[in-house]
Amino acid sequence: MSGAISNILVDHVHIHDSPTGVNVKTGRGRGGYVKDIYISNVLMENIHQGIKATDQCDSHPDDKFDPYAFPITSGITFKDIVVLNITTAGNFSGISESPFTSICLSNVSFFTTSDPSISWVCSNVSGSSKNVSPEPCPELKSSLSSSSCFFLSYQDSQVAVS
Question: Gene3D superfamilies under this entry (predicted)?
Fold first, then answer.
């Protein structure tokens, strides 16, 4: 990602037999933003890592990038998600100069094949959660409120055609 992406709705998805279920990635030198993403009603089966969101991707097409162009990653909501037969629930790894903000998890259940106490990896991220199992890392445990999360429904994304 070297530009911007926002106002994305992902709804009613079945993902199976995949290394990663949902993957959001960007990195230093990319700039831009990833914001207002709403992912809901997802069933995942036989997944190694359920959610991966990282600003640690360091690939660039050439060496003419600005290493101080930090991406903004904010307003990503994960709602009504069930993941069966998984190794790692989530990995949220932002960068210290531009951490992930307003990450929301609501009604998310991971049924891990490993020790649930090591199923989350988090750094440089803040957000909130409600009804998440196993419990997410401390950075994602603040109380969930509708004002702190991005919500978009299918109805909101309809375009009138005349």
Answer: Single-stranded right-handed beta-helix, Pectin lyase-like
SS (H, E, C) 5-41: EEEEEEEEEEEEEEEEEEEEECECCCCCEEEEEEEEE
Q: Tell whether 81 is covered by a domain.
A: yes
Point out which residues pair with 2 in neighbouring strands: none
**Predicted TM-score of the model (pTM):** 0.84
Residue 38 lies in a domain: yes
pLDDT tens-digit readout, 6-58: 999 999 999 999 999 999 888 777 778 999 999 999 999 999 999 998 876 66
Rg (CA), the chain: 16
Peptide linkage before 134 cis (omega within 30 of 0): yes
Residue 162 in any domain: the answer is no
Pairing mode, if any, of strands 100-112 and 120-123? Answer: unpaired
Q: Which domain holds residue 20?
A: 4-146
**Would residue 131 be called left, alpha or beta, if left means φ above 0 and alpha means ψ between -120 and 50 degrees?**
left
Contact at 8 Å (CB) between 88 and 121? yes
In a domain, 159, yes or no: no
